[in-house]
Specification:
3 copies of one chain form a homotrimer. The first copy, chain A, is of the alpha/beta class. Chain A has 12 helices and 19 strands. In chain A, the strands form 5 sheets. An 8-stranded mixed sheet of chain A has the order 1-10-12-11-13-16-14-15, sandwiched between helices. In chain A, strand 11, helix 5 and strand 12 form a beta-alpha-beta unit. In chain A, helix 7 crosses helix 9 and helix 10 crosses helix 12. The longest helix of chain A is centred in the middle third of the chain and has 20 residues. The relative contact order of chain A is 0.13. Chains A and B meet through strand 3 and helix 6 of A and helix 10 of B.
Chain lengths: ~450, ~450, ~450
């Protein structure tokens, strides 16, 4: 697998998506979805009309931003949307006004602690408007009369969710959910859709077809996950074996796995296992309901087995939610490594089946089956032999291959080939077990 | 709350109680109870007549000690009850005799390892008599003829238990049990009744009335707890949510919490939580059946959720059960700090209710309710917001607020105001749950 | 108990057994069993005829080896069975042939990493033949024509298992299983039968008779355990409380306990407890299905509570399965210490009964029963008193005396006498509990 080449492809696509002024809904969001579709094939759309009630929320209007600027006392342009999509508060209503600096200040957002960063602000559910700028620039504004102009529409339309379904051999599901509503931010946004679009490609090409049916979601954050749950939540509750929210995954920081609310779901067990055996520094943190769409998937009424494998988490990189979260923070190499880790994670989940030994009383005699040297007593502690003997003893149909690996500290990718060989020799059989439960 | 002033009041009352020659039953015990009543209001009495069978025990007679002394070969007074209540073995029968030093020695108790301390000894359940004195004094006794005199009565009467009941909004109970049968010892005795009498005062003044019904007991150690259990044990087994034996709580040593026999009862969970977050050095020790009345409450037939929050435990201060456990060992400041800690403990138990989110599917939309800034994306990791979001996710009616705080390492006194605010906004509702069980 | 003398006796018997060319079945195996019988009394035999199917296995023929040698180009004897039983591959078929060194090499086994060691090899289940020799000797073989001669029979007969049954007061069983099919190896073979034969002696002499019925097995490794399970496995599944495979127990290395597959069976709990309190360095390792007959006893269809207390385990001493595992590696002192440890283990299992206090409500009054000083308040924290008080509180019929000791970190051999004394005073009673289950 040429992850490095895919890392470069991902970064190139992120560069193309960068300038679009995305928000929850509207033309830029739609255009972004279409651009991703070019890479990973058809994406199904689910529509939710403005004003529709979804649980505690109401579907917002579309926002179409065309122009936004502030002109200073001498008519000079002080702030212009064309310089950065973050300059205008997302979902600002249209405005044309003149006002004194003093009054303008109430509409401005900046970060005194990060004087060069333009912050990211939104006003999705309250009609308002505002501008964001660097604190350095703000401090240089001279008293006087300012002209502000926002040319935008807030009109009824629809929130759109993009979904790719990759059918598996069973109808048990795995969810990979990412979001696409942030304009011009790289790690906390574009890294996620880049990874998910590549995973779509890998899963479609997989032979044999995967065991699980995969649901890959591109949604506007929060409202998108809520809409999806409102329409498909019952199915997820019934069929979802594991899921991950894919975000903050493009910087070169160490991996972080945030557990699902359950803490020991298949999603969690697989992530722990893969990170433990991948040999890279990482940390595992408990679930907490700040972050991204795991907040919706893990809301107590659903409590789905959804965690999040990230690199530097939202609360640990200072560029988060500012103009400094740009395409230099995210690197092709880091994206390549992230893709590889998510790929391993998926393959670990695929491999985590449950087996049962067919000769449960005493050991099976292995030498006539060609599984053991005919001359005995040499090297019984060789690792391959030990793995095989372990599986013949451990597999009693009560626990899957991840649990087996965890019991002896061996990675599932080393154990699974032994299990397959033992199945070929009719010494193990696959247990058509119940849906993978908590560990 | 002026804990310091209460600390001084407690020490002053202990000073008044000090000279009374208390034992299991008799006039000095009764007088002590009346003296405490002056401070904390009416105390109900429960009577158990001498000779009554209570489980494996028989209620003892009353003991009235008036005079006790030893005179030496030259008629000089060697030991006199008037110098220390500990000089006479508690429940000594009356005696008037002359005997040689050699025979007297068999009736004397001293501590070679602590030559200046008078030990505390009792003979409650076997008729006998004896004297206690310092080993230094004992070593100076000259051979010769000694006169001993004990003017005491051992007569039928009754063991009395004092109980203050503070009705709560429910009939679930919290027990605070202390003992009042030791003469002239300060940490291992008077500190306990002092704290409990102040807690009675605080609980009576509490607004609103507490959720739990509080039972505050002043009893003679061991036999008192056994009598109480014989009469009220079935009620405790049905209703007791948490209890503490209050003793050894007046010295300046670090706090020690001794777990109940169950180890994870509400009493234990609350004490662990409060000590963890109070920021004072402390240790937590497993239950063991040496100590005080927790031995009775945690006897296997009852196995009640009763622990003990102490400072220097009976087995860790050398003055224990000697004349050195005096009013210099116990300080107003230490008493004040202990009252404060018990007060926090009670408030933690009161706060540990169970809540359920009213919007379990997806997160509730907070900004229109004034619970979240209308301009989004700023500082989602601010602590207050995180606490609120956590409660909206965690509270599914299955675990109380102590468990919530333990999950994220936050004190219940910080979480509870958020819970109340969310109840006001109809986002949480109180679960009229079952009796608080083990964690 | 004079363990040192028994250590010397064990080493002397091992020296007598050393020269016999034992294998799975045949005259040398039978003779060895008879030699052990001289020491520890009658051993019952169970027979399994050649060709009989036992689970996945077929009972092999008997092997009678009389002579085996290789002569070199000049007629000189290069290898001779008379020098070492390991020189011939066990279960070699008869052969008389001349062949070039090049062809002979394919029939030779040596260890390049251990040039002075003769390896141990077998060909039980495939007809073949071969010789083993040191790599040093092998490297000196000159090109030319060699004569090989193996005078052996492979004839129908029977596999024999030896069993000593020591009846107990109940029909619950404890299994001690060792093997006797290795020729001329000391730690990985003879140490086991030596220890088991001494344990037979100790258990027969025990007064009173043990609580458990003991099964002491001397079998050929693997096939012997499988045969035993085929005939008696259902009984073991129903009655076996604990078992140990006794091997690798004669060298001076630290003790190693290998857990049963269950991990917390009575066998495991007792071994952990005894090793923890015996004060000798040791390690405890998880179950893994390489090793000895625990592989059969712990096969998933049986999953019996069988662990293995060893010293240097098969995978940790380099002499394993070579001619270097000789009678200098095993010492009388080490055998004596091992016997002592197994003896403690058996006595811990015997002592691990379950008790229930007869006075569950409040403490019993101890002083009139002579169990507590009549003068109270002195030294309540003395260890003996604490042990007794602990038992009176802990024993509620729900857990055995090993669990009691583990709760307070006290060895069962200190607690049991207190329990017996309390039974004599009618304060504890033995619970005729269910079969000891997992802890």
């Amino acid at each position: 697998m040429d992850y490095a080449a895919r890392g470069r492809d991902m970064h190139a696509l992120a560069t193309r998506l960068w300038p679009l002024p995305r928000s929850l809904a509207g033309p830029a969001y739609r255009e972004s979805l279409a651009m991703i579709e070019e890479v990973c094939g058809p994406i199904e759309r689910h529509h939710f009309d403005t004003g529709e009630q979804v649980f505690d929320w109401t579907v917002p209007p579309e926002w179409d931003i065309r122009e936004a600027w502030i002109r200073g006392p001498d008519g000079e342009t002080v702030v212009d949307l064309r310089d950065s999509n973050l300059h205008v508060v997302s979902y600002s209503e249209p405005v044309d006004a003149e006002l004194d600096l003093e009054d303008l200040q109430e509409r401005l957002h900046s970060l005194p602690d990060q004087p060069d960063a333009i912050p990211y602000r939104t006003t999705y559910y309250t009609r308002s408007w505002g501008f964001c700028l660097s604190d350095r620039q703000r401090s240089e504004l001279r008293p006087g009369r300012y002209t502000v102009h926002i040319d935008a529409d807030l009109r009824p339309g629809r929130v759109e969710l993009g979904e790719i379904t990759i059918p598996g051999r069973t109808d048990e599901e795995v969810l990979l959910s990412t979001y696409l509503c942030h304009p011009s931010m790289a790690n906390n946004e574009l890294s996620g859709p880049m990874i998910v679009s590549q995973l779509a490609d890998l899963l479609k090409a997989r032979e044999p077809a995967p065991r699980y049916t995969y649901r890959l979601l591109f949604v506007p954050e929060t409202i998108g996950a809520i809409c999806y749950l409102a329409r498909f939540g019952d199915r997820l509750r019934e069929r979802l074996a594991a899921g991950y929210v894919v975000t903050c995954i493009g910087d070169p920081g160490d991996f972080t796995y945030k557990l699902s609310r359950r803490g020991n779901s298949l999603a969690d067990r697989a992530a722990r296992h893969v990170l433990t055996h991948a040999g890279e520094p990482h940390r595992i943190v408990d679930y907490y309901p700040a972050g991204s769409d795991e907040r919706q998937y893990c809301s107590p009424g659903f409590n789905l087995p959804v965690g999040s494998l990230m690199r530097s988490t939202y609360d640990r990189f200072t560029e988060y939610h500012t103009s400094l979260d740009d395409l230099t923070l995210v690197t092709p190499d880091a994206l390549a490594g992230s893709l590889r880790m998510y790929h391993r994670l998926i393959e670990a989940i695929e491999a985590a089946e449950t087996f049962e030994v067919t000769v449960p009383y005493g050991e099976p005699l292995l030498s006539p089956r060609g599984l053991y040297p005919t001359t005995g007593a040499a090297d019984p502690f060789e690792r391959g032999k030990q793995d095989m003997m372990f599986l013949l003893n451990y597999c009693d149909g009560s626990a899957d291959l991840l649990a087996a690996g965890d019991r002896i500290g061996r990675p599932i990718w080393d154990l699974r080939p032994h299990a397959d060989r033992l199945v070929q020799h009719d010494l193990l059989r696959l247990v058509d077990g119940p849906r993978p439960a908590d560990g």
